[in-house]
Amino acid sequence: MSDFTLDDLQRIVAERARSGDPDSWTAKLFASGMDRAAKKLGEEAVETVIAAVRKDESELVSESADLLYHWLVVLALADIPLSRVMAELERRTAQSGVAEKASRAGR
């Protein structure tokens, strides 16, 4: 099992995002802005769903990695730390999923 965490990936994204390295996909994505990064996130989400529906385990793992990476890029562009999302998940686990979903219905 790997010791690599989403916190590690978040740190790498932050480092590379502002590196200006012309060979860095992360730097290029950051330079392109939120619209491009969000579009890539959506594309990766769709590709992850397709892999799941096809029951292609290898592709599902690969697309899931792409999805998590692009999600962290979007969060970084929005200046939202992963810890804030994790705190929200922690808050939600304090109640049943049905109750949590009902609490969001009015939003």
Written description of the protein model:
- The chain is an all-alpha fold.
- The chain contains six helices and no strands.
- The longest helix is centred in the middle third of the chain and has 21 residues, at 57-77.
- The radius of gyration is 16 Å and the shape is globular.
- The mean pLDDT is 93.
Biggest sheet record: none
Secondary-structure element string: HHHHHH
Sequence stretches where pLDDT stays below 50 over 5 or more residues: none
Rg computed from alpha carbons, rounded to a whole number of angstroms: 16 Å
Q: Give the distance, in angstroms, between the N- and C-terminal Cα atoms.
A: 39 Å
How many helix segments?
Answer: 6
- Overall shape: it is globular
| Total number of strands | 0
Average residue pLDDT: 93
Strand fraction equals under 5%
Which structural class best describes the helix and strand composition? mainly alpha
Helix content: over 70%
Topology:
Blueprint: H1 6-17, H2 25-32, H3 34-53, H4 57-77, H5 82-93, H6 97-104
Please tag this protein with its features.
globular; mainly alpha; 107 residues; 0% strand
TL;DR of this structure?
The protein has helices at residues 6-17, 25-32, 34-53, 57-77, 82-93, 97-104. With 107 residues, it is mainly alpha-helical. The mean pLDDT is 93.
